[in-house]
Specification:
36% helix, 2 domains, 7-stranded mixed β-sheet, 351 residues
């Protein structure tokens, strides 16, 4: 069952007023983080047609020109306006309409019964976006209520933008008496009393933390999926007390994913998990197994392999038994690590 993520329109609204570089970077980071999730089979990103229209009506989107002005004003090097606008447009254009996805034709919440906590989730939006997102949350409440009544696990979550003050909540509480018309039976109107708590995340990192690494791995479907898993493992190790002072930059090499698939690490959980942990530990300078130079031949006096850009080749064990998988990587002249490929104990190639 896919993780269903409902987008809070605030996530797409440019800070107004925008008073600092930090505020601008928070906005850019929040949107950029979704780039790797849009094509994932295990994550369904949802936005209603009503919210899409409201963003335009409230003059919240498109905002590329205003974003470019702010990036120039605060000398922001985090990303350019075109890149962020493309990601935002991808969310708007490629996600299923929330109403269609959940098969709800119309929904109405009694105003005098409606409660939402924290109220700032709606209060910070302009009128049209506030009204449209209120409807989205009612739909989310109906969906979550159905999961409870059918005794199945809900995989629903709201993705929101950073709150300016106060501790970040872990959920949005919604209470209301609603009337619902479903596509499957347009002539029938259901009366439902909602009292639901819907999980909310304020960054893609929080969403990653809520997902199992094996789900994020997604069959080693892309370099981004691998990178997200490694990054999550790094953060988990740091949270457990590992010193981050020795952390280095890293990259996933162009041939890494293909080698994972070739050696079965895409489909074998044990291979995948040991690869993720080994990469994370190398980045933090606490390798799981000894690291040795990758030489030009098996001869003990052979020279270490180097690349034209000055990068030096290394390898380390992933597993000791069976095929004795090894991890090959380059350490660049600037100290950054580039994970190249995995292979068996007889593997003499580094990509």
């Amino acid at each position: 069952m896919a993780q269903e993520v409902i987008i809070d329109p605030f996530l797409l609204c440019l800070p107004n007023p925008c008073n600092s570089l930090e505020q601008l970077e928070d906005f850019i980071s929040a949107i950029a983080g979704w780039r790797g999730f849009l094509d994932r089979a295990d994550t369904c990103v949802l936005l209603s047609d009503s919210v899409k229209i409201a963003l335009n009506t409230d003059c919240e989107f498109p905002h590329r020109h205003r974003l470019a002005e702010l990036i120039k004003k605060f000398n922001c090097a985090l990303a350019d306006a075109n890149t962020i606008s493309k990601v935002a447009n991808s969310i708007l254009e490629r996600t299923p309409a929330l109403e269609d996805y959940f098969g709800i034709n119309d929904i109405y919440g009694e105003a005098d019964t409606f409660e939402l906590t924290p109220a700032v989730i709606l209060d910070r939006l302009k009128p049209n976006c506030r009204s449209a997102f209120r409807g989205d949350l009612l739909i989310a409440g109906v969906k979550d209520n159905e999961c409870v009544t059918e005794n199945i696990e809900s995989r629903l979550m709201v993705a929101s933008g950073k709150m300016a003050v106060g501790p970040l909540p872990t959920s949005i509480f919604i209470k209301a008496d609603v009337l619902v018309s479903k596509d499957s039976d347009r002539d029938s109107v259901l009366q439902i009393s909602l009292s639901q708590s819907i999980p909310v995340t304020f960054s893609h990192d929080q969403l990653i933390d809520s997902l199992d690494l094996w789900a994020i791995w997604d069959g080693a479907s892309s370099e981004e999926a691998v990178r997200i898993c490694v990054e999550s493992c790094i953060n988990n190790l740091i949270s457990s007390g590992v010193n981050a002072d020795a952390r280095c930059d890293y990259a996933i090499g162009s041939g890494f994913v293909a080698s994972l698939q070739l050696w079965g690490a895409n489909s074998r959980r044990d291979y995948a998990m040991v690869t993720i942990e080994s990469c994370a530990r190398i980045v933090l300078g606490i390798a799981k197994n000894p690291i040795i130079e990758f030489r030009e031949s098996a001869a003990g006096n052979a020279k270490q392999r180097t690349r034209e850009d000055g990068a030096s080749a290394f390898r380390t064990h992933l597993t000791m038994k069976g095929v004795a998988l090894r991890l090959m990587f380059w350490r660049r002249a600037d100290g950054a690590v580039e994970f190249a490929n995995i292979g068996g104990k007889g593997e003499l190639e580094i990509s």
